Amino acid sequence: MTRLLARDVTLGYEGRTVARDLSVEIPDDSFTVIVGPNACGKSTLLAALARVLAPQAGAVVLDGAEIASYRSKEVARRLGLLPQTATAPGGITVGDLVARGRYPHQQLLKQWSDDDEVAVAEAMALTNVSDLAPRLVDELSGGQRQRVWLAMALAQETPILLLDEPTTYLDISHQVDVLELCARLHAHHGRTLVAVLHDLNQAARYASHLVALRRGGVVAATGPPGEVLTEELVTDVYGLACRVLPDPETGTPMVVPRRPDWMAGRAVEGAGDGRSVAGG
Ligand SMILES: Nc1ncnc2c1ncn2[C@@H]1O[C@H](COP(=O)(O)OP(=O)(O)O)[C@@H](O)[C@H]1O
Ligand SMILES: [Mg+2]
Questions:
Q1: Predicted confidence band of residue 280 (pLDDT cuts 50, 70, 90)
Q2: Which residue range or ranges hold the ABC transporter domain (predicted)?
Q3: What Å distances lie between residue 185 and 142, 194, 273, CA to CA?
């Protein structure tokens, strides 16, 4: 039984249908990455999987029951969502925001436990924000804020974690940090991860399972990155002519956009011997 899936869902907002009859399974214990062009419905799908958005038709199923049938705290103990754009309450400190991730675990009378304390400290250490604890969230850089939100999602300690573009705003080394952290959570802590990523090469490196959406919220392909990420797929889904080569570091597919004709024959400054790259 798959823990989390969307079955024949129609998703949208007032007056706008984003996806129709969409079915997506999140394989248990996978690191699933969702890719697709801007506005194709990735965030909408993630919101539906997290019960933030109710499907207009069809169902999202969590642990064998319709997700709509759970109490909200129960959903929040099973899955966490890092939204693409999250706004913190004004004047809140980093420590307090991360602590809010513990809400689903709190009981009525026993408000704050040692477990909560440990979970918050661990989440902040993993995302490298412990030093920021007393700072106001409003005053952080985009990259720092992104890691604080990730810490809050981690503090929730859910077996399933949904991350919408967790690497936005981050410089390349912090992007790698976050993706490595996700990979560790997946490999060593048995978390099921679902992330929306824009960088296809990062997606191919880290995903165990890739879901490629095309415009209109239609699944173009699913499966291991090595099977899904082909030149045909990239052309089909993004309208981009490219080559797909093995990543020299990992052997996973690496997408290299083709050079348009008008650029051919131009000398490339600093390309070793400075020769024209025309004709390879
Ligand atoms: N709250 C909303 N109300 C109305 N339309 C929305 C809302 N959120 C997203 N949309 C629209 O739904 C479509 C899919 O958006 P989204 O799921 O955010 O795309 P993606 O994450 O793939 O970039 C877009 O056309 C977007 O403009
Ligand atoms: Mg989005």
A1: very low
A2: 4-240
A3: 23, 12, 44
**Ligand 1 pocket member 39 (CB < 6 A):** yes
> Rounded to two decimals, what is the model's pTM?
0.92
**Which residue's CA lies nearest to atom 5 of ligand 1?**
13
Helix (H, G, I), strand (E, B) or coil at 30: coil
- Positive or negative CA dihedral for 175, 181, 182, 187? positive
List the residue whose alpha carbon is closest to atom 9 of ligand 1: 44
User: Whole-angstrom Cα distance, residue 65 to residue 9?
Assistant: 15
Distance CA 227, CA 113 (A): 46
**What's the gap between Cα 278 and its chain centre?**
38
Quickly list DSSP for 119-135.
HHHHHHHHTT-GGGTTS
Element housing 223 (H / E): strand 218-223
pLDDT tens, residue by residue, 49-74: 999 999 999 999 999 999 999 999 99
Ligand 1 mean position to 167 CA, how many Å? 19
DSSP-derived letter for residue 140 is S
DSSP letter at 71? -
Neighbour-count burial for 103-127, b at 16+ CB within 10 Å, e otherwise:
ebbeeeeeeeeeebeebbeebbebb
Q: What is the DSSP letter of 258?
A: P
Phi then psi dihedrals of residue 60, to 5 deg:
-100, 130
Q: How far apart are CA 48 and CA 50, in angstroms?
A: 5
Residues whose CB falls within 8 Å of the CB of residue 36, separated by 6 or more in sequence, listed in order: 42, 212, 213, 214, 215, 220, 237
Domains of the chain: 4-263 (3.40.50.300)
Q: What angle do CA 255, 226, 147 make, to 5 degrees?
A: 70
